[in-house]
């Protein structure tokens, strides 16, 4: 008889052995992003969150560009051309630092850069994508408006022809990177349907006042975009795409990154609770030795494991070209909801210390309240999944 194989040791930080499912390249991406975050963001992000600012956001963006994570899943124009799963793994590591850092990368690569890469003219691609991939130029994406969120077809921002030029008027709201951006991708109503425009932010009539008094995503720049008779040349418009197909295709890219990223916030909070449970002593022993605390940790690991498995499954489908938008909605709906619950449970393990920025938990918990809403609310993704499984639309 053959002797039984020796079982591998169990990693208490990865009890399901999820890391074994990643390829060597995917592990290398995770390690590289984790090292960058350990050096450039982890030591400072709690202070950034408390102060509501990233002091040198351009310097950070250039470092992210040098690592190759900006538009990393796009081909050509200085982009890294990595797989969707490698991009997802990077998003997990970035959001383990902070949702605001992952948002910076996601808006740059999956919204602004992807829009230009997918729908732009060759001239627009050549002008903007290399510098954006390098982090030398920052982009933002203008779709949401003060009175229009989940129903972008009713946007009020309008672009009209004036001779050969386009003139844009309107407002956009809750725009990540807005007041630091060099270029904005702005979606507007035209006589020919919704169209996208590449707007250099130094164009007269364009302004981006920063939104203050946030209690979530504080380590992230969030702005309003004001377009007051912004005059653009004829070649500023995306040449082919019309209707909501354009912006929704970009949102689907960003939502995919959130499926992974939310699990990074969950992992950070879970690991903080796990460490705390073994260090905090009550009634003569670590609180991790009590059944109720172990139940919390076990339940958190169950949901984290399922969330990463779902993200990995969707990543493999995206790499195979078989990922549907409804499946991304399923992933975003589940993973953000469960990540938020993990953070809330982790907070209870830390007790009063759970509300201190000395630990990452309350910061992740507050951030995920925004992530739960942006790139499609819980209600909208629920209805997308509901229609997928019943065949019946229930949006109106």
TrEMBL record:
Record key words, sorted: FAD, Flavoprotein, Oxidoreductase, Transit peptide
Ranges for domain Acyl-CoA dehydrogenase/oxidase N-terminal: 23-136
Protein name as annotated: Acyl-CoA dehydrogenase
Gene Ontology biological process terms from the UniProt entry: fatty acid beta-oxidation using acyl-CoA dehydrogenase; fatty-acyl-CoA biosynthetic process
Originating species: Streptomyces colonosanans
The keyword Oxidoreductase is assigned to this record: yes
Cofactor(s) listed in the protein's UniProt record: FAD
One Pfam family here: Acyl-CoA_dh_1
All copies of domain Acyl-CoA oxidase/dehydrogenase middle, residue ranges: 140-230
Transmembrane segments: none
A GO term, aspect molecular function: flavin adenine dinucleotide binding
Sequence similarity: Belongs to the acyl-CoA dehydrogenase family.
């Amino acid at each position: 008889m053959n002797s039984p194989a020796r079982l591998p040791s169990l990693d208490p930080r990865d009890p399901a052995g999820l890391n074994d499912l990643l390829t060597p390249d995917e592990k290398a991406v995770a390690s590289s992003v984790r090292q960058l975050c350990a050096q450039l963001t982890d030591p400072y992000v709690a202070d950034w969150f408390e102060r509501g600012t990233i002091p040198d956001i351009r310097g950070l963006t250039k470092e992210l560009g040098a690592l190759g994570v900006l538009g990393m899943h796009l081909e050509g124009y200085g982009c890294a051309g990595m797989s969707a799963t490698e991009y997802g793994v990077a998003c997990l590591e970035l959001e383990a630092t902070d949702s605001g850092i992952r948002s910076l990368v996601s808006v740059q690569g999956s919204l602004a850069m992807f829009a230009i890469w997918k729908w732009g003219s060759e001239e627009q691609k050549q002008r903007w994508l290399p510098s954006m991939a390098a982090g030398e130029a920052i982009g933002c994406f203008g779709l949401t408006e003060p009175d229009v969120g989940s129903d972008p077809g009713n946007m009020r921002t309008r672009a009209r022809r004036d001779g050969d030029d386009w003139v844009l008027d309107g407002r956009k709201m809750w725009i990540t990177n807005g007041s630091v951006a060099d270029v904005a991708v702005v979606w507007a109503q035209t006589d020919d349907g919704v169209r996208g425009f590449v707007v250099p932010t130094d164009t007269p009539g364009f302004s981006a006042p920063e939104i203050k008094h946030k209690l979530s995503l504080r380590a992230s720049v969030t702005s309003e975009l004001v377009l007051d008779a912004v005059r653009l040349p004829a070649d500023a418009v995306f040449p082919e795409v019309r209707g909501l197909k354009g912006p929704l295709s970009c949102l689907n890219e960003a939502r995919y990154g959130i499926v992974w990223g939310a699990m990074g916030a969950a992992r950070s909070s879970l690991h903080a609770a796990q460490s705390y449970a073994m260090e905090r002593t009550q009634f003569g022993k670590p609180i991790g030795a009590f059944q109720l605390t172990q139940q919390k940790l076990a339940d958190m690991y169950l949901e984290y494991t399922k969330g990463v498995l779902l993200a990995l499954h969707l990543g493999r489908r995206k790499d195979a070209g078989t990922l549907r938008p409804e499946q991304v909605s399923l992933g975003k709906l589940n993973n953000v909801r469960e990540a938020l619950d993990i953070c809330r449970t982790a907070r209870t393990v830390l007790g009063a210390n759970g509300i201190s920025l000395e630990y990452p938990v309350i910061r992740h918990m507050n951030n995920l309240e925004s992530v739960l809403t942006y790139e499609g609310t819980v209600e909208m993704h629920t209805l997308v999944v509901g229609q997928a499984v019943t065949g019946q639309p229930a949006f109106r």
